[in-house]
Amino acid sequence: MSSFESVFGDSPEFVARAPGRVNLLGEHTDYNGGYVLPIAIEQQTSVSMSHSNSKQYALYSEMLDDIVYFTLGKSPTEHFATYVYGCLMEARAVGMKVPVLDIYIQSDVPMGAGLSSSAALEVATLRVLRALTGFPLDDVQIAQLAQRAEIQYAGVRCGIMDQMASSLAGTREALLLDTLTLERRLVPLPPASAVLVLDSGVVRTLATSGYNQRRTECEEAAHQLGVQSLREVHDISLADALPEPLGRRVRHIVSENARVLRAAECNNAAEFGMLMNASHTSLRDDYEVSVPQLDQLVTLLQAHPDVYGARLTGAGFGGACVALCKPESLHQISEAVLQDYSSMGLKGRILVPPHWVDRTATVGGGSAS
After folding, report:
1. Which residues pair with 61 in a beta bridge?
2. Residues 96, 245: one domain?
3. Band of the pLDDT at 155, cuts 50, 70, 90?
4. Are residues 329 and 249 in the same domain?
5. Where residue 355 falls among pLDDT bands split at 50, 70, 90?
6. Model pTM?
7. CA 6/CA 11 separation, integer angstroms
8. Confidence of residue 315 (pLDDT cuts 50, 70, 90)
9. 168 and 251 assigned to the same domain
10. Cβ of 142: how many Cβ atoms within 10 Å?
11. Is residue 363's pLDDT more than 80?
């Protein structure tokens, strides 16, 4: 395995890390100005930097075993490099003097699994820039710069949730975030509970078109209700006056915001789990972003006696499921559920916690299509 020293010939001057995240509750509410409840995961991205004597920035990815050279003012063509390039440009835009750098990326955040590997990369990059330059940036500003970098330079029209979670959340405390005002507070997990994330093995090939369609539907519903965003709607019965599917979309957003706020005040794992179960039902029936494989995996999780609740997490149309479980049973739950899932010709894998990934990363056969 390579290292900063083997690639660049010396030790890095500064290193910073940032975690991935999983969203416990509050799905598709962020672009409606609503509430979200993400939590950081143990897997992290590390970014190391040193001043360079070259005229070009050198960016090496350990995961891809690829090095990219670029200058500011001309974006690199390699997609992973655009996230770092965007952070450098956004930092410079707020007055940071960004020197030419050697940059090394290492990460164990699973890529393409809906755990915000991109936000972890952005936040870690901005954290190490802050350390290297001494430029004053607080953790909220880092999240805001990271979001702008992803929108402007990586071409992803993302909300602020992922970057705020990576910058501010902990692994035992979720971040209750009002995406409209950025008001926030940390919320501990209920006692005797832990988070499990399983990948369905279904690649989210429809996420982009479906995601954009849902955004458009929410905007049209808000327009018909005479509000700026669905955040302003609190009476779920107003959805009855709208044509379908707009009424269903409103029912999900209003009920999901209420679930997030209720969960934030909940100190009981069983009650929290019931809210997660209700969230999945709403995402499946009212928001229509689930697929049969996700439904099957959620059903298996919900049926396990040591699981409090489970739901799809992320945009849907494939991807992962999150469950709140008894901590002492995480290994047994994941093995039993993935074994049953594989008996249906499907292949899943453990994403969080990462402790058993090398040993039981996948169970059973089938196509991960």
Report:
1. 66, 105
2. no
3. confident
4. yes
5. low
6. 0.88
7. 9
8. confident
9. no
10. 26
11. no
pLDDT grade for 205, boundaries at 50, 70 and 90: low
164 and 61, same domain (yes or no): yes
Q: Kindly state the average pLDDT of the residues 40-57.
A: 95
Domain containing residue 53: 4-188
Count: domains in the chain: 2
What is the spatial distance between Cα 32 and Cα 307, in angstroms, rounded to a whole number?
30
| Residue tagged 């934030």 (tokens) | 264
**Domain at 82, CATH number:** 3.30.230.10
- List the catalytic residues: 162
Cα–Cα–Cα angle for 127, 130, 136, rounded to 5 degrees: 125
Query: What CA–CA distance (Å, rounded) separates 163 from 145?
Result: 9
> Mean pLDDT, the chain, as a whole number?
92
Single out the residue of 196, 195, 163 nearest to residue 179, CA to CA. Answer: 163
Which DSSP string do the residues of 279-341 spell out, in sequence order?
HHHHHHHTS----HHHHHHHHHHHHSTTEEEEEEESS-SSSEEEEEE-GGGHHHHHHHHHHHH
Q: Of 215, 216, 214, 251, whose CA–CA distance to 234 is shortest? A: 251
Mean pLDDT of 165-185: 94
Closest CA to 22 of 46, 48, 36, 40: 40
Structure tokens at 309: 């609740």
Respond yes or no on whether the N-terminal peptide bond of residue 99 is cis (omega within 30° of 0).
no
Mean pLDDT of 227-244: 97
Residue ending a domain, among 146, 166, 188, is 188
> Could you give the CA distance from residue 358 to residue 369 in angstroms, rounded to a whole number?
22
User: Hunting for tokens 């090398």 — which residue is that?
Assistant: 358
- 214 and 170 in a common domain: no
